[in-house]
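Deliverable D4.2, example record:
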Amino acid sequence: MRECNNCGSLVSERYVRVFAPDEARGPRVCPNCEDLVRDGAEVREARATRG
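Output generated by the structure prediction step:
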């Protein structure tokens, strides 16, 4: 297992394969990172129109 570069939590090889670039040693962030939520604790609206 690899470590998250942000919080140090262990992440699976599958997670690394999907979310980390090939040249990276590990993912920059993971689902365990405490600072994933933006200020205001809400998901922002999409900037681009879809569909």
